[in-house]
Amino acid sequence: MDVTWGAGVSHEIAWGGLIAIYLFLAGVAGGAFLTAALTDLLGKKGPSKVVRSGAYIAPVSIIIGLALLVFDLGRPFSFWKLLFNVNFGSVMSIGVFIISIFTALSVVYAYLIWVSSAASGKIHLTTGAAQTAASVEVRSQGLHKAVAIFGVVFAVGTATYTGFLLSAVSTNVFWSTPLLGIQGVPFLPFLFLVSALSTGLAAAMIGAFDSKDLTLYKKVDIVLIALELILLVVLYASVKPVFFGGNLATLFWLGVVLIGLLVPFVLTIYGVMRHKNLVLPVSSMVVLGGVFLRYFIVYAGQILR
Amino acid sequence: MDALAKKHYAMVIQVAKCLGCQACTVACKFQNHVPEGQYRTKTPVVGPNGTYPNVRMYFEKEACQMCQVAPCVQVCPTTASHYNEDGVVLVDVDKCVGCKYCMTACPYDARFLNKETGTADKCTFCYETRVSKGEKPACVSTCVGGALMFGDVDDPQSDVSQFLAKHKTEVRKPEFGTRPSVYYVYEGVK
Amino acid sequence: MKRRHFLKGALYGTGGTLVALSGVGTAMGPLTPRRAAAAVQESENTVYSSCEMCRNQCPVAIHVNKGKVVKVEGNPHDPAMGGALCARGQAAPSLLYDPQRIKKPMIRTGQRGEGKFKEVSWEEAYKYIAENLKKVIEQNGGESVALASRKGPHDWFFRTIGKAIGTPNMFSHESTCPMTRAVAFHTTFGSEGIAADFGNAKYLISLNRNWFEGIHVPQTKAVMKMLNNGGKLVVLDPRFSVTAAKGEWLPVKPTTELAFVMAMAQIMISENLYDKAFVEHYTEGFDKWAESVQDKTPEWAEKETGIPKEKIIKVTREFAAAKPRAILDFGWRTALTSNDYQLRRAILIVNMMVGNFEVPGGLYQVKAAGVLKGFPDQAGYAKALGGVKQPGFPKPAKGRIDGTGVKGTPGQLIPAYDGAIGQLTESTLTGKPYPIKAWLVHRFNPVIGIPETEKTIAAIKKLDLIVTCDVYMTDTAYYSDVVLPECTYLERTEQVYDMSGLTPKYVLRQKAVDLVYPDTKPAWQIYKELGEKMGYGKYFPYKDINDFVSQQLTQAGLTVDVFKEKGLWTPPGMKPFYVRGTDPKAELALLATKSKKIDIFSDEVQEATGEGIPVYKQHPQPGEGQFRFVQGKVAVHTNDGTHNVPVLNELMPTNTLWINVASAKKLGIHDGDNIIVVAGKYEHKGQAKLTEGIRPDTVFCYHGFGRISPELKRAYGKGINDNKLISDDLGVVGNSVSSMTFVTLRKA
Ligand SMILES: Nc1nc2c(c(=O)[nH]1)N[C@H]1C(S)=C(S)[C@@H](COP(=O)(O)OP(=O)(O)OC[C@H]3O[C@@H](n4cnc5c(=O)[nH]c(N)nc54)[C@H](O)[C@@H]3O)O[C@H]1N2
Ligand SMILES: Nc1nc2c(c(=O)[nH]1)N[C@H]1C(S)=C(S)[C@@H](COP(=O)(O)OP(=O)(O)OC[C@H]3O[C@@H](n4cnc5c(=O)[nH]c(N)nc54)[C@H](O)[C@@H]3O)O[C@H]1N2
Ligand code: SF4
Ligand code: SF4
Ligand code: SF4
Ligand code: SF4
Ligand code: SF4
Ligand SMILES: [Mo]
Fold it and tell me: Residue A305: what pLDDT?
């Protein structure tokens, strides 16, 4: 301003880092759950290390995420009002229910996985506890499957919800960018779903990095990373280039693209071909890339309006 | 906006008459107990543009545009943001949890999180404190330049209706389809 | 409830109130329908009063809720206000409830300027002042005590002390403000009470008036009205002010305005555009003026002013065509150059050339009750206010230090009430023409308000005694021996104030709330009590302010009830009175000049300065690398008075130095750079603001920033104090000179 008085035009960033991390954690939770539950449902043997890792990461990460969300509220202690004042036209209002159900399912699922691990001796417990676990495990067979199946549905819901949350802001041209220009089909839910799967899978793998054969997961990961790269190319082509410049350029090009996607992509392929483990570095980078992606999307949408 | 709304309140801002004096800014703060460092309305300068000695500048009062299709109301998860019986967009502080979703949705940067209540806050057209008692909003009644007009556009006798019938007005960011109830007149400045 | 929270609320007044009353934090929020219903039931009453966020004293309506001021509005009963109020006026509760106000009398304990004070009782403060003043008077005579205040109703009480002491050295702020204009009014019309009917004009030229930032609500609204009715505004200003943005901007070379005015006269005479009949009938000495402007051609004026001659001709023709509803404005803060009074005289003469006196849309004499007496058909409308009769005061033993009133010298022209404040620091420092040993300061901040801050401080340091009465620990208070806390205008009643314009108008300031800080007092009480302590009790013959007010009103045939109801009084049924409104040849019975005519040539000015007709004088212009330094008002602050008021500080905590983009580029200065502004031996750090809205040879800043009292915690050290850079030069008629300082700039 050349005239120096008065309250300048301000441009508040409503949603900051906490929300970015929340969106990321919700994605990780969804992805990790899917990794675990799908392995669990489709695999033959009892809960593998990956299943356990995914099943435990999901509730922890969604609960931390929700805590951050609540903490970010202007009135954290009134969060319960979200459950009693419903607006069916609001993605957030619906999302609250999806996430709540998912959280409950993920907690139950983690417990059931813990129980069945205990029952199958994968966890060392006192004899008494192991017996109790075994009897619970027997009685909850049906429940286990149901929770896994419903959990899968709500995990997908949770992972995509984070995308819908942003894309529903129709006044935000960046967040509401449509997929390939198709009106009514938002882009972000797809990107966030793929990123959730990829980061959730990566997180689950970190928890099970010393497992012997993770090749299948690594191959899935390669596909997911490739998909995500394609989606980013689509995004780049659909919105104005300014969104990838300015202050956020480093975050996007270095953080999201290089650290989060290209390097892990190359390294995984290398790892798979050379039978090297490389899970820790690769998966960490994927997870980190997921954080960067959420930060980038959350901020780019608000800074450059 | 609620189709059954009894009235359609609107504000007209004649930009050429605005002095950027900020009387509205301060009046609003006291009328509505707006916390330190926060504002429901501001009147920033536009310009000066051009090169010496051919320069121009004007001021543009901004606040909630009272959208008839309000994105803030659409996204609000608690229905705290709502249209009241006279079509005015308000925030029910008892319902608001401070999630700030509405702030991300408002294309006019009209909202802020009130530091003292933790709830979303914005211009209310002074609905409860003045308009419902038959007074003009605080900013309108104090306006030194006489740039602001307020009234019911559904009432053909009102100043605003008669003014709108005769003048070319613009709304901000029409591309979002929000149908603001705040009309800008750029006669004499653009 | 957290204490911090409460204080924060208290900054805004109302927030604090609600919290204190309800005890729950959420009550501070916006009102929901449910809460609104509750709020309506709360008792709210309206007190009519007048604003004092600046000295314009605009009529206001103060809304009080449970003993707290919650909102202030323009008095709706005053058509000139129409409910409007400026940002500063709106900020009233922020001042009222500011915890940084001074709350108790204080006596200095450390060195001057060290900022060490102890809180004392009023009794102790009065005793200290009385004893030390007595000492000064005994040793150096009453004339060694000087009084300085911003002109206003408080003067009646404040100056009674000075008159009782017998000092001639009483100063107002006027020489920094409109004094040259007042001199011009007086020497042209015989009265200072001249005003302009902007609202009804069709053409208005400003030579250094900025109605939209130097705000006076009724005047600002009147100029807006003129614009809305299709009137034209031309603004000569070296920088692009808000006013310039609403009209045609002519970036005049400062100090050359008189050339523009003389060229206007030359054009009007050579093209026969002036009102001959008016000039012949009502004025004296026009031929001498015609002669002196004969060679002041547009070509010549273009060279002087930098304004293209075509522009000068066009504006003059349009101006003349709009006569008599054309006004060449006479300015308000008119302390620009050493011979500024001649610019003001020339402006008035050009106005008379379009015959705009006492007609709608022109100049007029203020129609106070005393003036109406001269017009039989108007005389019945109003009676003059009464006064409180005081016994005779001792006659000062010596003349004034500034030569005011000395016949045959320019001092003859200086209004005796005002004097030349710039001489006060000079005399205090040099002891010439005789020593000044004590200053009493009221509602005035010379350390920031008058040129050459360091000289002012040096003078203060030489004093035996300095007492300041203010609402804040201002920069002057900070260097004082005794600081007296006045309550704010919202907490006091004052005498009825005559604010007549085209009709008489009386305004009463009425106390809206009880003292927020119980140890503060109103001026009428402070000086009465101090006077009693000093044995001057007889000069304060009123019981309290209500007694004072009723003594005023009885004589005017009014009661206080009308003020309680509406806050102001104007004669019912009286229309705006223009003497020549219906009869262009009406007798101007109100002219108070000796000649009974409008003095284009003034014998008095001739006698005092030898230039009875304005004479053009070239002032130095900035050389290579130099800039002329000019200043001005900003809409959200008052002079040097509001920079620490919470909400106003929040809106504008600091100022910048405006520099033309091209000029700055040459110096490698970028927007927002820290810079050093150098004026001779003085330097000031500041921030550069690059703009296309200023002449390449001029820099500008808003006045009143760069505060040096650390007790002004919000404003301290922020921005540029212009007066640190401007030297204490006095103009011919004692005005402080503000537009003749050159500065150079460098990056910090
Ligand atoms: N908001 C607000 N309103 C106020 C005040 C305030 O502080 N703030 N103060 C009140 C008081 S005490 C007064 S006296 C009036 C003053 O009212 P004004 O006299 O109108 O105010 P200023 O801003 O001092 O000066 C007017 C213009 O003169 C320009 N100027 C400065 N130097 C020169 C020069 O040498 N030549 C020319 N041609 N122009 C020049 C400035 O850029 C400015 O735009 O305002 C009153 N109203
Ligand atoms: N360089 C430069 N110098 C200038 C100007 C400029 O533009 N440039 N402007 C000039 C002009 S136009 C003027 S009028 C002068 C003004 O100079 P000042 O008269 O000093 O300025 P004000 O801001 O009017 O207020 C003076 C003091 O009154 C105090 N005050 C406010 N309310 C009350 C009250 O109720 N009681 C008491 N006791 N004190 C109170 C304020 O705190 C402030 O300290 O400055 C002049 N100085
Ligand atoms: S301007 Fe913003 S806050 Fe106001 S109604 Fe429209 S979207 Fe809502
Ligand atoms: S902050 Fe309040 S008003 Fe805004 S969307 Fe959230 S709950 Fe609704
Ligand atoms: S209408 Fe009321 S709430 Fe809105 S900007 Fe004006 S004063 Fe503030
Ligand atoms: S009060 Fe009126 S003139 Fe002043 S800034 Fe506000 S809208 Fe503009
Ligand atoms: S001009 Fe503004 S600050 Fe000055 S008296 Fe009037 S309302 Fe108050
Ligand atoms: Mo002034």
Answer: 62
Which residue in C212, C220, C693 is closest to B48 by CB distance? Answer: C693
Q: Which residues of C touch B25 (CB under 8 A)?
A: 87, 651
**Which residues on chain C are in Cβ contact (under 8 Å) with B143?**
84
Asked if the structure places residue C420 within a domain, the reply is yes
The Å distance, Cα C89 to ligand 6 centre, comes to 14
Q: Is residue C379 part of a domain?
A: no
- Please tell me whether the interface predicted TM-score (ipTM) of this complex is above 0.90: yes
CA–centroid distance, residue B62 to ligand 5 (Å): 10
Domain endpoint, select from C46, C68, C96: C96
Are C360 and C474 in a shared domain? Answer: no
**Residue whose token pair is 């009103």:** C553
Q: Tell me which of B96, B178, B179, B182 to substitute to probe ligand 3's pocket, judged by most ligand atoms within 8 Å of the beta carbon.
A: B178
Encode pLDDT of C554-567 as tens digits: 999 999 999 999 99
Angstrom distance (rounded) from CA A27 to CA A65? 10
Distance CA C478, CA C472 (A): 9
Q: Is residue C264 part of a domain?
A: yes
Whether the pLDDT of residue C33 is over 60: the answer is: no
* Position C101 in a domain: no
**pLDDT at residue A43, rounded to an integer:** 78
Out of C51, C62, C211, mutate this one to test ligand 7's pocket (max ligand atoms within 8 Å of CB): namely: C51
Q: How far apart are CA C330 and CA C209, in angstroms?
A: 8
User: Which atom of ligand 1 lies closest to the CA of C337?
Assistant: 35
Of A122-136, C217-231, C407-421, the one with minimum mean pLDDT is A122-136
Over the stretch A214-272, which tens digit does the pLDDT of each residue have?
777 778 888 888 888 888 888 788 777 777 777 788 888 887 777 877 777 777 777 77
Residue C619 gets which letter from DSSP? P
Q: pLDDT band for position A9 (50/70/90)?
A: low
Q: Write b or e for each residue in C633-666: b if 16 or more Cβ atoms lie within 10 A of its Cβ, otherwise e.
A: bbbbbbbbbbbbbbbbbbbbbbbbbbbbbebbee
Q: Are C673 and C707 in contact (CB under 8 A)?
A: no
* Alpha carbons B81 and B102: distance in angstroms, whole number: 8
On average, the pLDDT of chain C sits at 94
Q: Give chain C's domain count.
A: 4
| Domain spans of chain B, in order of start | 9-185
Considering only the top CATH level, what class is B9-185?
Answer: alpha beta
Chain B contacts to A (CB-CB under 8 A): 20, 22, 25, 39, 42-45, 47-48, 57, 62, 71, 74-80, 95-101, 103-107, 109, 111-114, 117-120, 176, 178
Q: Which domain holds residue C69?
A: 3-96
Q: Residue C38: pLDDT above 70?
A: no
Residues C505 and C453 in one domain: yes
* Vertex C88: Cα angle to C85 and C93 (nearest 5): 95
Tens of pLDDT, residue by residue over C366-417, are: 999 999 999 999 999 999 999 999 999 999 999 999 999 999 999 999 999 9
The predicted-structure confidence for A27-80, as pLDDT tens digits, reads as follows 999 999 999 888 888 876 655 888 888 889 999 999 999 999 999 999 999 999
> Which of B39, B45, B78 is closest, CB to CB, to A81?
B78
* Candidates C5, C18, C83; nearest CB to B142: C83
Give the nearest chain B residue to C228 (CA atoms): B17
In angstroms, rounded to a whole number, what is the distance separating the alpha carbons of residues C670 and C661?
Answer: 8
Closest ligand by atom to B61 CA:
6
Same domain, C599 and C741: no
The answer to whether A6 faces chain C, any CB pair under 8 Å, is: yes
Q: In the prediction, which pLDDT does C76 show?
A: 96
Helix C453-462 vs helix C421-430: crossing angle, to nearest 10: 50
- Please give the single-letter amino acid code of residue C356: N
* Cβ of C332 below 6 Å from ligand 1: yes
Q: What pLDDT is attached to residue B185?
A: 97
